[in-house]
Structure to design on (251 residues):
């Protein structure tokens, strides 16, 4: 593992890593256990990866924990996930704070049960002055929900005469997303062998490098994170330009 770590170029780290934490249910089923058992073990992976990112000096880590579509899962699973969320936040907030980590939440907070929203709001306030890793939890989040809201609030401003249609540009749109103020992720990791985005950060992932691994989320550890970063560092990001142009730019 230390060998993998030494292969990472610390001067070329992604500033922002986003992860779709997938495969908890299958991990549990493979052991003849209930899906909630998988979610429970997924928390250990969250701890490990948050620590790994903080140690490396990654500035932003966004974790997709619950999508707007996940509300349609069986009720016992939704309730179990909400309870796990609350107990995890309660148990971890002190350690986040000690490590100078600032918590953020993106998503439709109105959908969360009151007790969960309250717990989150307290944790957000408690860590708001921290200056280390920004840990962004995507909860009750989806890219389409976010874009719809952005369009609505821009339309309201136009209607009230606060904004002219001609003045709407990419910055306007970005400012109305729930991620305003956060840089776009350079690296997006999805665990558990699914090759899709599942409504995650649809706008922000435009030029992200995508990395897929078969490893199920409850088995995902720092060494897997390092593998993803090494893979990322071996790629050429061209942003629509030619490889030759990119080489000239880097000189
Ligand atoms: C990811 O694991 C966690 C959530 C979506 C809440 P899953 O629960 O999707 O696990 P699989 O994909 O069914 O194995
Ligand atoms: C995406 O995983 C959402 C989270 C990891 C929170 P899903 O398991 O819900 O996605 P699909 O249904 O396989 O696309
Ligand atoms: Mg899944």
């Amino acid at each position: 593992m230390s060998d993998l770590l030494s292969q990472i170029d610390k001067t070329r780290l992604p500033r922002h890593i986003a992860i779709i934490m997938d495969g908890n249910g299958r991990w549990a089923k493979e052991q003849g256990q209930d899906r909630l058992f998988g979610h429970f073990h997924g928390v250990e992976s969250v701890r490990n990866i948050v620590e790994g990112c903080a140690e490396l000096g990654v500035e932003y880590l966004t974790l997709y924990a619950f999508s707007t579509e996940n509300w349609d899962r069986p009720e016992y699973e939704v309730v179990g996930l909400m309870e796990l969320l609350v107990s995890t936040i309660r148990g971890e907030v002190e350690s986040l704070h000690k490590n100078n980590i600032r918590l953020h939440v993106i998503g439709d907070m109105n959908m969360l049960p009151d007790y969960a929203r309250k717990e989150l709001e307290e944790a957000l306030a408690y860590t708001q002055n921290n200056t280390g890793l920004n840990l962004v939890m995507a909860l009750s989040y989806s890219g389409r929900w976010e874009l719809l809201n952005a369009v609505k609030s821009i339309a309201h401003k136009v209607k009230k005469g606060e904004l002219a249609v001609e003045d709407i540009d990419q910055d306007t749109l970005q400012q109305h997303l729930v991620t305003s103020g956060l840089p776009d992720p350079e690296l997006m990791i999805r665990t558990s062998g699914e090759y899709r985005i599942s409504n995650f950060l649809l706008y922000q992932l435009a030029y992200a490098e995508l990395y897929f691994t078969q490893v199920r989320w409850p088995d995902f550890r720092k060494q897997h994170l390092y593998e993803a970063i090494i893979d990322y560092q071996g790629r050429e990001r061209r942003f629509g330009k030619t490889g030759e142009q990119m080489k000239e730019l880097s000189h």
Summary: The two ends are 33 Å apart (CA to CA). The beta strands are 16-20, 60-67, 102-106, 134-141, 187-190, 209-212. The mean pLDDT is 97.
